[in-house]
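Weekly modeling sync, notes
Attendees: S.R. (lead), two postdocs, one rotation student

Agenda item 3: backlog of single-chain predictions. S.R. asked that every request posted to the team notebook include the full sequence so nobody has to chase files. The rotation student volunteered to paste the first one in as an example of the format we agreed on. Action items at the bottom.

Example entry:
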Amino acid sequence: MIYSKSYQTCWHDTDACRRVRPSQLLVYMQEASNHHIASTGITLDQLRDEKKLAFILSKIQIALYRPLGAYDKIEVQTWTCKGRGFTSPRCFRILKDGEVVAEANTQWALLGVEDRQFHRLEETGYEFEDEEPLALTVPARIRFPADLPLETLGQRRIVYSDLDYNMHMNNTRYPDMLCDFMPLEDVGRIKGISLSYLREAAFGNVVTVLGAKRDESYYFRTLGEDGAVCLEAQVIVE
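Predicted structure, as returned to the notebook:
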C-alpha cells in the first residue's frame, strides 16, 4: 500500500542554484518512510532500543525530473516491495502540484546492533502491503568504465554533523559530499544519482574520495583508512 506524507520545503534546503539539494530530497523521502513505519505501531527508535535492530541502506537510485525551490508544497509517497532473503526494497515518489518531480528505488537490510548479523524483516513485527518497484532509467548497478582512471580528489573526515544514531555517516549526507567534488555548474544539472553503500564510515574516520568524469556521468569511490571501499556512486548530469 502506498503511504503519503505532505511537506513544505525550507529555504535552508536550497543551494547556490536555489534548488533543493539532492541530499534534502533524500531527507524528505526517508522522513516519509519513518512515518510509514511508525504507523504500524513500532517506531525506528523502538526497533533499535527494544529489539536491537536497525535498517541500513545498501543501494539507492534517484531520478530527478524537475527542480524544487524554497517553500514548495510537496507530497512524498513511499511503499515497500517484495524482497529476497535479507533485502527489503522500498520506493519513493515526490510530487508537486500532482506532477512527479523525483523518484527513487532503495534496498535496505536489517542489521542487529549488537550481534552485527543480518536479520529478516519478519523479526520486526512490521506488516506492509507490497507494491511494484519503479522502472527508472538511473542504473541499478554502477559499472565503472574499465579504462577510466580515478583520480584522488581529496579526503573527508567524518564529523559530528554527519552522524546518525548509529555513529556513522548518515546516508542522506553522501550526495552533498559528492557534490562538494563537482563543479558548481554541474551540480545544478544533476538528473540521476546511483549510490552503493558497501561499508559504514564511522565517526572520526577519514575517507579518501576518488573520482573521474566520463561523458554525462561522474564516477566516485570512497576508501576507508584501511583501503577498503566504503561507497561507489554514479552522478548523471544533463
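Discussion: group reviewed the output briefly. The two ends are 33 Å apart (CA to CA).
Action items: rotation student to repeat for the remaining queue; S.R. to check formatting next week.
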